[in-house]
Amino acid sequence: MRRVTLRYERDGANSCHLWAYVDTRGRLHIDGQDLGPATALVSGDGEYEWFKTIQASDVPRVVELLDGREGEDVLDLLERNWTGARSHDLEARLRGCDIPIELHVWSG
What we know:
It contains three helices and five strands. The protein has one domain. The chain has helices at 59-65, 74-81, 86-95; strands spanning 3-11, 14-22, 28-35, 47-54, 102-107.
């Protein structure tokens, strides 16, 4: 299964990670993990993880939201335009849209 790294940031003892993949049912997953003392507000053990899932039927809407072309592979689009510093803009667009996104959060 192809997985695109959207973010891998380090700042001292803190690190932030964000990945995307499409599962066998065509759903888009965007998974994040923050490690280090910066997670203290939400985690007692220095680890905070979240998992977002977008249904396959809504993936074309995500492509449109991210200025992609109709029929474009969402992982190609993410890898080309939404990695590194742009991954923060990606998260902001997803927060501000009306596409249903299932969110699961885990913190230690």
